[in-house]
Write a structure and sequence with these properties.
The chain has 377 residues and is an alpha+beta fold. Strands 1, 2, 3, 4, 5, 6, 7, 10 and 18 form a nine-stranded mixed beta sheet that branches. The chain has a nine-stranded mixed beta sheet with strand order 9-8-17-11-16-15-14-13-12, with helices on both faces. Strand 4 and strand 5 form a beta hairpin.
């Protein structure tokens, strides 16, 4: 199952053990090379995310050339942390990323420090420009300045630890930093009643106007892509070639980690959602709609059916995957946010992505040149 075992004793734990006359509590780090042991252990950890699964690492390896190491951190016979660590070469430079990870109990701040220290050591060893992490640790809830929200004490402790350990908040947030989440532990009636009156009305309008929702199958993938392409053209966002999405959707559906729903009117597909799900969460990753029949409100019915599906499957949280960084109309997500907020999920602001830079001068040089390189590409 593993190619090596590295034994680490943090300086903190070693000092405590010596002071108490005990044997130091050893943290064993090893690499897992098989899908089932990896996903099974990951599923049991706090902050497990679908972007840390075996399938996501394989998808990025095949489509984008990332080299993936899957590290397990074990103490006293139990896996207590995991990190799918992806490395990519860009010309003479290397970067590392742990997408939506690592997974561990962040209330144990000493464990988090030990894991981050090990990842930083690996970044130094491999000579990368930066190592990026972005776990779903909550920093605050509610919009900035809103009296109904609050700062999360645990998230603040993680941020303070990152700063003192040499990490820096990243100006490049690859995944969404903020999102809206719906608590699925409530009854369907409670979830529906909590929605805004306008959203609840539009859900009902969709059914009254003949919208039908059904699960998608693999044979629907070309249709799903065409709807996604139309949406990209209408909303002016770039999309990748069809092979990219069809591979992701097909492989995750086949692995039991994705579920797609199609809205139809008069037998024609007019909208869809694609859900990714793992651990205790279900994420609304992709959504699309045609330019026709929009007055039938298919997207509202799709969201409601997606919420009900996720609840029926036993997930505790429905994550709507994305909210603005700036909470006004200047943010590109503002229009989508207005749609999502009608479902009355809780606005969650995470700590975001943080970078560790072994060579700060190289990191700053890259940060200045990266926007120009991306524009050129």
């Amino acid at each position: 199952m593993e190619s090596y075992r590295l034994h680490r004793v943090s300086r903190r734990l070693e000092a405590e053990a010596i002071a108490l006359g005990r044997t130091p509590n050893i943290l064993t780090i090893y690499e897992i090379h098989h899908r089932d042991p990896w996903n099974q252990a990951l599923r049991s950890l706090p902050y497990a995310h679908v972007l840390q699964t075996w399938e996501w690492g394989e998808f990025k390896r095949v489509t984008s050339g990332w080299n993936v190491e899957r590290l397990a951190f074990e103490r006293e016979g139990s896996v207590i942390a995991m990190a799918s660590l992806a490395t990519r070469t860009m010309g003479p430079l290397k970067v590392m990323v742990v997408s939506k990870g690592p997974a561990l109990d962040y209330s144990d701040i000493d464990l988090a420090r030990d894991v981050f220290d090990e990842l930083a050591q690996r970044a130094k060893h491999f000579g990368v420009i930066w190592l990026k992490i972005d776990p779903d640790v909550i920093a605050a809830t509610g919009p900035p300045g809103n009296t109904d929200g609050h700062q999360d004490k645990g998230g603040g402790e993680v941020i303070a630890m990152l700063k003192t350990s040499g990490w820096r908040f990243s100006n490049s947030q690859v995944q969404f930093r903020n999102t809206l989440t719906i608590d699925l532990r409530r009854s369907e009636d409670e979830i529906l009643a909590a929605m805004s009156g306008n959203t609840r009305r539009k859900v009902r309008v969709a059914y009254k106007k003949g919208v039908k929702i059904r699960p998608a199958i693999v044979e629907d993938l070309p249709t799903l892509y065409q709807l996604y392409r139309v949406t990209g053209e209408r909303d002016k966002f770039l999309i990748r070639p069809p092979e990219y999405y069809q591979r992701a959707w097909r492989e995750f559906m086949s692995a039991g980690l994705a579920h797609a729903l199609v809205a139809e009117y008069d037998g024609k597909a007019i909208a869809h959602v694609i859900l990714f799900h793992f651990g205790r969460k279900c994420w609304y990753f992709y959504g699309a709609s045609s330019n026709e029949e929009r007055e039938r409100m298919p997207n509202y019915a799709l969201q409601w059916e997606a919420i009900k599906w996720a609840k029926a499957k036993g997930y505790a949280v429905y994550d709507m995957w994305g909210a603005p960084d700036v909470f006004d109309e200047s943010d590109t997500l503002w229009g989508v946010y207005q749609f999502k907020r009608g479902f009355r999920g809780e606005l969650v602001r995470h700590i975001g992505a943080w970078d560790f830079a072994p060579q700060p001068w190289l990191y700053h040089t890259y940060a200045k040149l990266a926007p120009q390189l991306l524009n050129l590409m």
